[in-house]
Design brief:
By secondary structure, the chain is mainly α. It has helices spanning 3-11, 15-37, 40-56, 67-102, 109-125, 128-138, 144-151, 155-174. The protein folds into 2 domains: 3-83, Rna Polymerase Sigma Factor, Chain: A, CATH 1.10.1740.10; 103-174, Arc Repressor Mutant, subunit A (Orthogonal Bundle), CATH 1.10.10.10. It has 8 helices and no strands.
Length: 175
């Protein structure tokens, strides 16, 4: 199908044109995003969001545009935003690790037992998914990617659970 006709069909709300666009470019852009971020699930999500933007803004499409180039720009921006957000989350997690490392070590076995009890209590009070993610990260020493894969979550969701868990632990230590 000619791209001009494809764009005109999209502008009219022709779902067949959208399906054609999707079948032409989806796999190509998922592979592109996956090479950059190394997370197949997140790549699929980002590309689906790009296609959703095309559909939601279809009336504004310019028939002289290359849809491949337009989608490339949308996906590239989404990937860059994803990488920026992931880097920010990793920075937060590292700051939490540094903070927890700065907590004074217990002086006596009784203090150590008390600290361990407080940590266990805090972990037990976490929502089930957060507790599961945190324990997989700390007890099983799994990477965020491995946890995401095992629990069918996005890596970003895993990072958020760990960040929240560490925040809860920090609050417990400061009390």
């Amino acid at each position: 199908m000619d791209e001009t006709k494809l764009i005109e069909g999209l502008k009219r709300g022709d779902y067949t044109s959208y399906e054609t666009l999707f079948s032409l470019y989806y796999v190509r852009f998922v592979n592109f995003a996956d090479k950059l971020i190394g997370d197949r699930h997140a790549s699929k999500d980002l590309v689906q969001e790009a296609f959703m933007k095309v559909w939601l803004n279809r009336e504004k499409l310019d028939a002289s545009l290359s849809m491949g180039n337009y989608l490339y720009v949308l996906v590239k921006r989404a990937v860059l935003n994803f990488l920026r957000d992931r880097r920010y989350a990793e920075t937060l997690v590292n700051q939490h690790h540094e903070h927890l490392a700065q907590v004074a070590a217990p002086d006596t076995p009784a203090e150590a037992r008390d600290m361990l009890r407080r940590i266990q209590d805090c972990v037990e009070q976490m929502p089930p998914q957060r507790r599961r993610v945190f324990l997989m990260s700390r007890r099983e020493a799994l990477t965020n990617k491995e946890i995401a894969s095992k629990l069918s979550l996005s890596e970003k969701t895993v990072e958020r659970h760990i960040t929240l868990a560490l925040s809860e632990l920090r609050k417990k230590y400061s009390s």
